[in-house]
Specification:
This protein has 333 residues and is α/β, with parallel strands linked by helices. 41% of the residues lie in helices and 17% in strands. It is built from 10 helices and 12 strands. The protein starts with 5 loop residues before the first strand and ends in a 15-residue tail after the last helix.
Length: 333
């Protein structure tokens, strides 16, 4: 059999008809994931060359080519360290603000490619970002921490975890002060992770749970960073996070409320496993292809990120009481 491509389509409508390009669904040399909205998530595991061809992503493998319109791509994950990317393709991906993630030999994301100029008013937005007041940043950080703890509680409740732990987190939620000067976020995280993954769990150890968490967080972080850049802001100038060597301080502020989504998947699908499997990588990427509730409406994850960031910017720049955050329950498109 002339095996070329295996594709999962996450839509029953507007399907991308690859059979017209001569591809055989049964093969498994690389996988491409598509979401049901106008933008797709593309995950490439095996290919030789990625090039630009008439505003399309051209994927070459042996004697077969696949063409995907760049305007349709939201996220591109390249999980093959032997692949070659052309400079014209990289430039076009950045022009279209495609969130591009490159993985290493261990399949974990190692690099994000982001454009230098993402918005027509970037200079003005960066100037506003630099001048965010300390008071506003402390108030917004308080709201982010409270939202994160609330979402952690929701995941604990969903998974029928200990009532006393949930009650304690509700207590911490009510005690969060501006700037979280009493570190209620850290105290909550310690109890939360131990209740989720066991008393012996240590964050950042080299085990299957931490690998899954890190992978999922990296996917969300890259998507958040691309949206921040698209809005004309710098992902490295944060609200609370201020790491001098961290290029994604603002992204790390924004991601906090989304982390429980990843935590829930890892708990229910990886806790008993020993190896980080391809199915895990695929499912963690697919999380960004879900819907969540924000401001009493279901939105796609990218739209929810956009709405969430916009509400934070209004608080920081206009002193508006506009903060809304996504809930952690996920829904299929």
């Amino acid at each position: 059999m002339n095996s070329v491509l295996y594709i999962w389509l996450y839509s029953s409508k507007n399907l991308y008809d690859l059979t017209k390009q001569g591809f055989i669904p049964e093969s498994a040399l690389y996988r491409a994931f598509f979401c049901t909205m106008s933008h797709r998530i593309i995950y490439i595991e095996n290919c030789e060359y990625l090039r630009l061809y008439l505003d399309n992503l051209k994927v070459e493998y042996k004697d077969n080519d696949l063409f995907i319109p760049i305007s349709d791509i939201q996220i591109l994950v390249i999980d093959n360290y032997r692949s070659n990317l052309s400079v014209p393709l990289i430039n076009k991906l950045m022009e279209a603000n495609v969130c591009t993630i490159i993985c290493g030999i261990d399949h974990l994301p190692t690099s994000y490619i982001l454009p230098i100029n993402g918005h027509f008013s970037q200079s003005g937005n960066i100037n506003k970002q630099i001048n965010w007041s300390d008071e506003n940043k402390k108030n917004v950080h308080q709201k982010i921490v409270k939202a994160k703890i609330f979402n952690q509680i929701e995941i604990l409740k969903k998974n029928n975890k200990d009532f006393e732990v949930i009650t304690k987190l509700y207590q911490f939620l009510g005690e969060v002060e501006p700037g979280d000067i009493t570190n209620r976020e850290g105290l909550s995280a310690k109890m939360y992770f131990r209740e989720m993954f066991g008393d012996n769990f240590v964050r950042f150890n080299d085990d299957i749970v931490n690998i899954g968490l890190n992978y999922g967080y990296s996917i969300f972080r890259s998507l958040i960073s691309s949206i921040i850049v698209a809005k004309g802001y710098l992902p490295n100038l944060g609200i609370f996070h201020k790491g001098k060597q961290n290029m994604f301080n603002l992204s790390d502020d924004i991601i906090e409320v989304f982390r429980p989504i990843v935590d829930d998947y890892v708990l229910n699908n990886m806790i008993e496993d020993i190896l980080f499997k391809q199915e895990h990588r695929e499912a963690l990427i697919q999380l960004t292809n879900k819907k969540v509730k924000i401001d009493n409406r279901k939105q796609t994850i990218p739209n929810a990120i956009y709405i969430y960031i916009e509400s934070i910017l209004k608080e920081l720049e206009n002193n508006e009481k506009s903060f809304v955050f996504p809930l952690p329950a996920c829904y299929d498109l």
